[in-house]
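Supplementary Note 3. Input sequence used for the single-chain structure prediction.
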Amino acid sequence: MARKIESERRNAGGLEGLLDSAAIVLLAVGIIGTVASLVWLKLYGILPALSILINTILVWLLLRSIAEIIRLLKKQAGLPYAGDISYPDATVAYTCSECGAMLHSESRCDSCGANIETD
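The predicted structure, written as discrete structure tokens, is reproduced below.
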């Protein structure tokens, strides 16, 4: 009879991590563009600066949302994913004490077939 072992897993990389990085870079470039537009065009730069800022925030939200969807789909499929899903930081994953595989069932290990003890 096997028992489940609690462990926390973090993975780096993947498309979701790249989307997060691109979102941050684009947000920084948009803020710099907004400030540059205000400095260069002064009063006439208010509308272009506002447009740049709104578009930057919308693209940032879109990229972050796509990355979040990828993470949720990977989590649902039991695959490792990069970054954090937007809920409390720590996630608990259970592994089989016999083979070390991640458990998807409360009663039986999908990998080695061992029965899992209930607490």
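The beta strands are 4-7, 93-96. The CA atoms of residues 8 and 90 lie 7 Å apart.
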